[in-house]
Design brief:
The chain is built from nine helices and eight strands. The protein is α/β, with parallel strands linked by helices. The chain has a single domain, classed as Aldolase class I (TIM Barrel), CATH 3.20.20. The protein is globular and about 45 Å long. It starts with 6 loop residues before the first strand and ends in a 5-residue tail after the last helix.
């Protein structure tokens, strides 16, 4: 297992500087991460730096609250794709989900799916820490029906992140129809490995370099 190829090497903090983003891209090339995940303002910059590389560019929409209107998320995502993004991690409308307004949740996801096209990767963040198991199940079913490629556990902002229990639950619901991205609080190789064993096929983390270096000293 090449764990680097399963990692979205992420830097989403608001105070990230241009030099930090440059370093992220350099690390992306060096280690062969699946993607670098950055805020939309950095997409063009990363696209230039990673030209000719196998490292994809991932960015976010409606991040981190998910409380924008569908058309705003769609425009944000469409602009990012036009500027060079390959993957969009959108935050679903969590308030609508918890209110039982599933129609709005669907409209939200479909708007972004349509905006970026089927050839681009769409991951939908459910912020699992604030949901009941029933809400996690319902959200994942909607995400499948709306044609997304991944359900993602967490933003990593303000709440606890990915747990093995959540990934196992999502794995049961997805039945491999879509993939699972675990994110939030994943800071070492052992944690990443446990989440992969539970069913995650992508790991979102700002500790990608540390995880890969630790993996060299461990047997998979």
């Amino acid at each position: 297992m090449n764990i680097a190829q399963m990692i979205d090497h992420s830097l989403l903090k608001p105070e990230a500087t241009k030099e930090e983003i440059r370093r992220l891209c350099e690390e992306g090339r060096k280690y062969g991460f699946a993607s670098v995940c950055v805020n939309p303002v950095w997409v063009c910059f990363c696209s230039d730096l990673l030209k000719g590389s196998s490292v994809r560019i991932c960015t976010v929409s409606g991040f981190p609250l998910g409380a924008n209107k569908p058309e705003v998320k769609a425009q944000e995502a469409e602009t990012a794709i036009r500027e060079g993004a390959d993957e969009i991690d959108m935050v679903t409308n969590i308030g609508a989900l918890k209110s039982g307004d599933f129609k709005l949740v669907e409209e939200d996801i479909i708007a972004v799916r349509n905006a970026i096209g089927k050839e681009k990767i769409l991951k939908v963040i459910i912020e699992a820490a604030v949901l009941t198991n029933e809400e996690k199940i319902k959200a994942t079913q909607i995400i499948i029906d709306c044609g997304a490629d991944f359900v993602k556990t967490s933003t990593g902002f303000g709440y606890s992140g990915a747990t093995v229990e959540d990934v196992k639950l999502l794995k049961k619901v997805t039945k491999d129809k879509i993939r699972i991205k675990a994110s939030g609080g994943i800071k070492d190789y052992n944690t990443a490995l446990e989440l992969i064993k539970a069913g995650a096929s992508r790991i979102g983390t700002s500790s990608g370099v540390k995880i890969v270096e630790q993996s060299k000293n461990c047997k998979n």
